[in-house]
Coiled-coil domain-containing protein isoform 1
Amino acid sequence: MIFRKCGNFRNCFTDLRIKIFNIFIIFLYRQMNLHYFNFALIFLANFSMLVFGAFRNEHYNQASFRTKREIHLSELTRIFNEVPSVRHDDIALKLFENIFNILQQSRNSIHEVDIHSEIKNDAIGQAFALTFENTAVLCDLILRFPDVYHSHFDRMNNITTLLKWSFELLRQSQLMSTNDENILYLTEQELNFIPKDPNYVNEYNSHQKTFKERLASERKAKKLTGKRVKKPRLTPIRSEL
């Protein structure tokens, strides 16, 4: 099986090489001074291909997946922090569309391949890696921007089928941490793929709404402050008789 825990020195050394390569690629992108929106699309579409094309896919394991999760989350956080909040929904929509395309392409490559088989084809290994990583990022986005997803994709049966496939594949990979498993579980509830827990609350969306409401309140306060015009004080004029 190609997706396994790091159990020997060789695999651990490979994980170190992957991490160093990841850092190097990010450094190159930042030196290019790309617009953050374009960077997000390029990052999610091409980054995994660059990394996993450089190493034998039999070395892909939980440590590799965890490294990529940390990098993706860090970059997504940075992008949304530095881009004006009024553009967040637009960026989320573009990211959704981009990830769906990646997942569909990967599915076309591996739809008849057993995840537990001894895979020797690097292209197949890359397709699995892209599916795992982009599915995890997709869950992060859905929980933070559920309104964007629901308004554009709820009635698209092909997207629903694609996501159910990628969710199941990610679960079978056994690569997720406990937190990742919880995020996947919450996402399935948010999309009504499974019955919602009576105590279900999308805390990620709650934080997002609170953040947006605070920004809107601050903008409103600034506008009101700007409209206030100080009237000149009237001072009595004394005339000498």
